[in-house]
């Protein structure tokens, strides 16, 4: 995994453990600061990464190895607005290239064991990042759904203002949003969802949701859908793949909510989609690297 030129190691040789820790934090901050939405300056951001780097190093050297602190570090990155997928990719690249190089020295930990631990820390960090980002997206999705449903019950005098707010959320949301009737005809989609499916809105709006069956659909997906359109449930959340127009697969975290009219009768269905394709591929790759020998490609006998 390549590291941006500005994130390469400083010319000065590492000295004390604290020096090596801070050099590692410097490389890390240089790598991900450009893709981080934060109000901090780069030196301030680097200081924020120092305790995270220290926890990562402590986990690497733990007498009884436990990768779980790396999950918390992944979640901590999301908490400081490192939500761009490139921030995760660059972080994993820094850990892979520099954690053992700068912070793996010591008689108590052999180089081969350090590399194996480093791979497991990368996997745990990616898992923590993905889980935190999914939870953040879920909260945003629920807020959007609440906004959409509450907009229908506002007083008539506030209808125009409510519609304006909903349209801003609909068009500006970072998740894909689609609205369909109870027969499954797609009525409206936002720009994010259009991009997820290849960028041609007409190919989405002209379809029925029942056409989006995929061989890897979980058995309960369409059972939940039928219950929702019959009004037997108000929402459901599943992981679901779709085929794009070019034949490639789009993996999503899908939340579907039932919108009712003023009398409580089912009227529309609202779908919120988070594109998880890259994270799924990354997790599969990290899982493979953590369980297979890097030279032979054979499964490791012990982890």
Task: Count every beta strand, where a strand is a DSSP E run of 2 or more residues.
Answer: 5
> What's the average pLDDT?
82
Q: What structural category do the secondary elements indicate?
A: alpha+beta
Number of domain units? 2
Number of helices, counting only DSSP H or I runs of 4 residues or more:
10
Beginning-to-end CA distance, first to last residue: 23 Å
What this model shows, in words?
With 303 residues, this protein is an alpha+beta fold. It folds into two domains: 130 residues, no CATH class; 121 residues, Beta-Lactamase (2-Layer Sandwich), CATH 3.30.450.20. It contains ten helices and five strands. A five-stranded antiparallel sheet has the order 2-1-5-4-3, sandwiched between helices. The two termini are 23 Å apart.
Could you outline the blueprint of secondary structure elements for this entry?
Layout: H1 17-32, H2 42-61, H3 68-79, H4 85-103, H5 111-151, H6 159-172, E1 176-181, E2 186-189, H7 191-196, H8 201-205, H9 221-229, E3 235-243, E4 249-260, E5 266-275, H10 277-291
Antiparallel strand pairs: 1-2, 1-5, 3-4, 4-5
Helix pairs in contact: 1-2, 1-4, 2-3, 2-5, 3-5, 4-5, 5-6, 5-10
